[in-house]
Write a structure and sequence with these properties.
Layout (H helix, E strand, L loop, with lengths): L5 H25 L3 H22 L3 H25 L22 H4 L12 H4 L4 H6 L6 H36 L10 H13 L1
Helix pairs in contact: 1-2, 1-7, 2-3, 3-7
Length: 201
């Protein structure tokens, strides 16, 4: 197969998903976000199986990856709604920490470009108000960083879904056209007649 085939694109997408999922896993571990840690772990395992299935021509693993991609898209939509306070969800809830700890997103305390050193008094430093952090000049508030992470995962997953459907259809076509006796002969009747004529000579 060529380098621009659907199979190669799915391999590339799986590798990209592994890289972004590992990056997300690190920041979820730093923020003690237990639900995303578990879901990311499952995602990494299924993407590895999908990668294996794509490389080894195993359509069942690619179907598993395809099924998981639908669930992964649902999870990322939930995370986006949670951090944007949509659908009755609140970013201040403890859904993602599973109620085990009072921690929230690592980005809440470590958002890029925040000037925590310029707080007027030490009393303000103990507060963890997103409004206070945003008023201090953060480049991007933490909830938007989390939404961007989920949006990136959504985009890559949708591409992976499309290419996985294509790869499964290609695998099924190749499986249907394979002739177990003569290999990939396109004209087995013609070759069979030649072999028979040689036997009569």
């Amino acid at each position: 197969m060529g380098c621009c085939s659907g199979r190669c694109m799915l391999i590339f997408i799986c590798i990209l998903q592994l890289i972004t999922a590992l990056e997300r896993q690190v920041f979820d571990f730093l923020g003690y976000q237990w639900a995303p840690i578990l879901v990311n772990f499952l995602h990494i395992i299924v993407v590895i199986l999908g990668l294996f299935g794509t490389i080894q021509y195993r359509p069942r693993y690619v179907v598993l990856y395809l099924t998981w991609t639908v669930l992964w898209v649902g999870w990322n939509i939930f995370v986006c709604c949670l951090y944007l306070d949509l659908g009755g969800l609140s970013k201040d809830s403890n859904y993602l920490s599973l109620g085990v700890s009072a921690h929230s997103s690592w980005w809440k305390e470590n958002a890029p470009g925040c000037d925590e050193g310029d707080l007027p008094a030490t009393r303000w430093q103990s507060l963890e108000s997103p409004a206070l952090v945003s008023s201090l000049g953060c480049m991007l508030e933490y909830q938007y960083i989390e939404v961007l992470h989920s949006a990136l995962q959504l985009f890559i997953s949708l591409l992976g879904f499309v290419y996985a459907c294509y790869v499964i259809s290609v695998f099924n076509e190749e499986e249907d056209t394979f002739d177990f006796i003569g290999g990939f002969d396109q004209f087995p009747v013609l070759h069979g007649n030649e072999k028979a004529s040689h036997l009569f000579l």
